[in-house]
Amino acid sequence: MKRRASMVAAVVGLALIVGGCGTTVADGGGDDGSPMHVHLYGSDANMSNSLRDKLTDMPAILSGMVGTAPLLELPESFKERLRGVDPSLADYGYAAEAYDAVMLAGLAAESARSTEAPAISKFMVGVSNGGTVCDDAATCLGLAKAGRDFAYRGVSMRRSGFTDAGEPSSASYGALHFSRSNTVNDNLTEYIGAGDPASASTTAPPPYPAYPSTNAKKRIPPLKVGGLMPHTGRLAFRSAPRFAGARLAVADLNAAGGVIDQPVEWVDGDDGTDEKVAAATVDRLVGLGVQVLIGASSSSVTKAMIPRIAAANRMLISPSSTSDELTSVADNGLFFRTAPPDTLQARALADVIMRDGPHRVTIVAREDAYGLGLQKNVKADLLTAGMADGAVDLISYPITTEDYAGIAARIRQNAPDGVLILGYDETALIVKALAARKVGTAEGLGG
Are 257 and 300 in contact, with CB atoms under 8 Å apart? Predict the structure, then answer.
């Protein structure tokens, strides 16, 4: 049965009460051909059931792998509604964050009495803080129409609202465990509050403008929300829940009467997990009159798109980009995210690793804003927790690499007893390459 750990008020107090990976760490090192049993770790980009589809020829290779992800104990009713949008969902990663991104945009537009992005952006932080607490479209839209201050407490933002920088002040994390079927064992998942609700913004929102007359409302363009998440590319395998969450929020806003009495329109788009694909999609959506874009999924693509979005006077809300760099990117006040920054996840990962007691850890990361940023933060937190500097090896790889055998050889040579992989769908290829070198968890290698 799932257990919910006690929430903590500050990141410093974050504690993940987790057991070991279920592996026994054997002596290894070099290339003598003997199995090297390691604790295997992952993070939010690869700790999902979707990875199973890329490992059908090795049905137990992920067994014992442990990792973290921003994660909520979602109500079954919400999961059922998501499945009503997409019956094929294998998991629900970032679905709540995508849902809340659209909801916040709709509520901010209603509060601004405008569907223009610069006007909407001025209310984004305010609708998540202060005033009457509400958690559904109908109630919150009613308060906005009445000009009453309110705080949206939706699916992913139950604890607190945005900081002044427009990102979550606190979040819920999960410690996830892969089973022998290469799927996450939900019975072992634990949920932990992280961050500090006191860091939420206390700045009052702007005064509500006068509510438009019937004739004036007709002159306001409908709110168009565009998808900037991957249907293709290396994160496409994880995107279905995000699209489902965003589309469900559009449906809920419309069921509650729409924004400024007009239906919200969803315009689909692909970021391709690629800057060029994303740029073309941004241009297309801007040309179609989309005011708010939901995405991108990867931090590097989001970082590249922020200047383009700002130049077009549009708004961007990412439900899954977690790099710390995004907090300080110049955005003209038009970028927000419902995904928490990686400073929180790094500490969670370091805690999981330290509790397993490895003496030497190799952190393998893709060379982008997400991988390198999280790698740096996890190493710093491991050192703070007492691990020796020389005991943490860093390996990075170009996002276009195909030399997974080379990565595995370097890991084997490092002779770690813990390996953290910070990658996307290529994680499956890294795990396979490690297995070929007889490096993996005891369960995964059949030891």
Answer: no
Which CA distances in Å does 264 have to 205, 218, 300?
23, 14, 29
> Residue for token digits 């920054």?
341
Are 102 and 222 within 8 A, CB to CB? no
Residue ranges, comma separated, of all CATH 3.40.50.2300 domains in the chain are 3-73+172-194+343-440, 95-161+205-338
Residue-level pLDDT at 95: 96
Question: 95-161+205-338 sits in which CATH class?
Answer: alpha beta
pTM for this predicted structure = 0.84
Q: Could you tell me the two tokens for 375?
A: 């790698």
- Name residue 212's amino acid: P
Helix or strand or coil: residue 324? helix
Q: What is the pLDDT of residue 32?
A: 62
In terms of CATH architecture, what is 3-73+172-194+343-440?
Answer: 3-Layer(aba) Sandwich (3.40)
Alpha carbons 39 and 355: distance in angstroms, whole number: 11
Question: What are the pLDDT digits (tens) for 370-423?
Answer: 999 999 999 999 999 999 999 999 999 999 999 999 999 999 999 999 999 999
- Smallest CA-to-CA distance from 151 within 131, 122, 170 is with 131
Token duo for residue 129: 């803080």
How many other C-beta atoms lie within 10 A of the C-beta of residue 343?
A: 18
Report how far residue 197's alpha carbon sits from residue 106's, in angstroms, rounded to the nearest whole number: 23
Distance set, CA 231 to CA 42, 91, 256, 265, 400 (Å): 23, 16, 29, 19, 19
Q: How far is CA 432 from the centre of its chain?
A: 25
Name, in order, each residue with C-beta under 8 angstroms of 103's C-beta and a sequence gap of 6 or more: 137, 140, 152, 154, 249, 252, 253
DSSP 65: -
